[in-house]
Amino acid sequence: MDRTALRAARRPARALTCTAAALALGLLPGLVPAGAARADEAPTTTKRWKYALVYYMNYDNNLEPCGRPILDMLGRGVVSDDVVVTCQADFTDREGLRRYVLTKGKEEVEQLAGEDSAATSTLRDYLAWVRDRFPAERYAVIFLDHGGRLGEMSSDEKPEKPDGPKWLEVVETAKACAEWRRTLQGSVELLFLQQCGKGTLENYHAFRETAKVVMGSQTVVGAPNTYYEAVLKAVCAEPALDGEALAGKIRAGDAPNMFTTYTTVREAALAELPARLEPVLAPLLAREKLAAPLGLKPCFDMAPDELFYDAKALLEVLYAANELDAAPLADFFTWFERELLAGHRVSPRRVDVGGTWCGLSIFVPLSPAARARYKHYPIFQQTGLYELAGRTGVALLEAARARRRAQPGAQPGEQPGAQPGGRRRPRGEGRRPREGTDPI
After folding, report:
1. pTM of the model
2. Number of alpha carbons in the 13 Å side-chain half-sphere of residue 201
3. Which residues are CB-contacts of 266 (< 8 A; sequence separation ≥ 6)?
4. In what order do the strands lie in the sheet with 300-302?
5. 160 pLDDT exceeds 50?
6. For 7-35, what is the mean pLDDT?
7. Residue 277: pLDDT above 50?
């Protein structure tokens, strides 16, 4: 892309309305920035790239203004002829999807029909296009956008039809990525869930076959984030970077106000997770009545009935409250730190909140319906975690009722948990956590 032309377009946009600014920057599909080529006009190439970074940008929501800045940062980072970045984007207009191809000094744009960016079939089509057009020695897949409930990722507020899919579903997305991976000649080094609250034990296990390492966050992630240009330049300088090294550069390169924690876990250990977890769960499940894990604040919550607690903190408090020998727990977290954990960073601005978190969260439902949504999750089918999650939620609710009886002035709708930092989300604020340039 002609970056001089883009900068020229930006200068007057500051004084324009949002729509006019989008027109000037080419944010609205169907309008290509001056100097940009069209990806559908580019000849099919048999070139084998050293690295392909594959972005999925569902910004058909309030994150749309972050789209162009992210593309610009990615474009500035591609300084090698051996590295390519692709990005499929959905914005708030009704003009369809776009596919961007960013190579050294060049941006191409392809217009697509359709609006269903939260349909698994749309994701599958995009991944197949990447495979066929950009064979590479190494790949990284990054999902931008909002995260919702445990099983919700990549929000599409305006699908093709009013009753169309508004979120990608986690397990189906993981299956699509794993199946795509098996068709590649190159290796998928990293899958990054760059979304709020996706860093749960249940979700990491669901994505266990998608990449050598998987990275996510236990709580809110900001936008647009800042790591793109520096990380792309590092990949260009060293295209043999493996997934652990790439994830480490992303963790180190993002601004402290853009995240609380980022955690990376290894594929091989994720496959062992059910067998390693069962000895930890068995003593808890053997209790006739489970004592509630009182005194914990969740890492993340989605009102009205989904809480997410740091896995280590939750299990330690459950073991203590139920007077259990902690040896199985100690064995599990020794394995976790040696084998499962590939990297973990706490933002220096959020040490007071996430400094003791282990890097994985555990889902706790506050209603039977909330638990039933996820009965199909692989980790729930292979372990007793589904039962423990339900019993923990019941114990928390019973403790909250007892507290309300003892404190008549307490709010009747009070939840047993609060958001990070103690802020309780008012009912009616909506199911999406606040997310912006600063999650603090």
Report:
1. 0.85
2. 27
3. 212, 213, 244, 339, 340, 341, 342
4. 300-302, 306-310, 361-365
5. yes
6. 32
7. yes
